[in-house]
Amino acid sequence: MLTGFAGMDAVARTRAAWQAALAAPIGAAAALGALTAGSTAVAVATMAVVAAGAGYSFAVSLRFSIAGLMVALSLLISQGLFLTPADAVPAFLFATAGGIVQVGFSLAIWAWERPRPEPVWDWRGGVADLRANLTLRSHAFRHAMRFGAAMAAGVATYRLLGMKGHGFWVPLTILFVLRPEEDETMHRLVLRAVGTALGLIIATALGEALVGDEVVVALVLAVAIGFAYGLLTVQYALFTTAITVFAVLLADTLGEGALRAAGQRAYATAIGIAIAAVAFLIWSNPGRGEEAAEDAALARPEPAR
Predict the structure, then answer these.
(1) Alpha-carbon distance 190 to 153, whole Å?
(2) DSSP string covering 57-116
(3) Which of 196, 198, 223, 227 is nearest to 210 (CA)?
(4) Which helix (H) or strand (E) holds 125?
(5) pLDDT digits (tens, 9 = 90+) for 102-111
(6) Pick from 5, 76, 190, 221: CA 20 to 30 A from residue 177's CA?
(7) Rounded to an integer, what distance in angstroms lies between the CA atom of residue 48 and that of residue 25?
């Protein structure tokens, strides 16, 4: 599922290239999660570093940032499932294989449609953007530090609270709502809350109505994740509704009651929203006045020695 989000707004050939490039990194992140899940301190530190890198990817482009977020999400899920070091190799193989399957679908579509090619990526431009943003005045750099700290706080919170069932939904919320700009983040916080509430209502009703009907539940899961893919870049509240329906019904099929899963989803989402909001309250981006003062200080000539 994670590799499927890479380049999803591009033509099939470009999408296949991004998915191929991401399959192994997502698999490696899954393996890293298995290796670090046993220790809270190690899990928190690892998430801080990987999430900071994912946050810094916003310096390049939206597509590159989605790729970075999917790698962090792979680590998040693997840690949240409390895999063991013995699961590291299977986690790598399964996650990578899932990505390769996505590549196969994209290549099949490309072979069928054969659209006009478009540039896949600009290595030189991407490296130049990363170098240019290595300053505290850069919103992307500040976001990287803020995002890494918030994600680490989310992991620490659900582990300290003993939320072993679906505790990873706390940092999952942070991953999807925390953005480099404060206005966009606050807007997504509201949409996340609304979409989650609507999704919980739908998922709980479907879970109770479809008890024992595995075929229909499987079809609903497929439709829900399809809507999630399609709505991510269209309307975030609707994406949240779809992914919430998918998550709660999936938990229900694995033996957990839909009502209980919905309650845990609501609880974890509320905690994640709170952490994301506090992250900007603690360290916001520089205002125009602050940026002007910093630019003036950097431009001021040094006194003669």
Answers:
(1) 21
(2) GGGT-HHHHHHHHHHHHHHHHHHHTT--GGGHHHHHHHHHHHHHHHHHHHHHHHHHH-PP
(3) 223
(4) helix 123-132
(5) 899 888 888 8
(6) 221
(7) 17
Calculate the alpha carbon distances from 127 to 51, 54, 140 in Å. Answer: 19, 15, 14
Kindly state the tokens that stand for 126: 């991407």
Burial grade of 140 (CB within 10 A; 0-12, 13-18, 19 or more): buried
The pLDDT mean for the chain works out to 86
Q: Which two tokens stand for residue 101?
A: 């399957």
CB atoms within 10 A of CB 11: 18
What does the pLDDT look like over 4-58, one tens digit per residue?
887 777 788 888 889 999 999 999 999 999 999 999 999 999 999 999 999 999 9
How far is the first Cα of the chain from the last one, in angstroms, to the nearest whole number?
A: 60
Instruction: Give pLDDT, residue 142.
Output: 95
Give the confidence band of 212 by pLDDT, cuts at 50, 70, 90: confident
* Residue of 233, 294, 259 lying closest to 7 (CA atoms): 233
Q: What is the pTM of this model?
A: 0.85
Q: Residue 61 region, left (φ>0) first, then alpha (ψ -120 to 50), else beta?
A: beta
User: What is the C-alpha R_g of the chain?
Assistant: 20
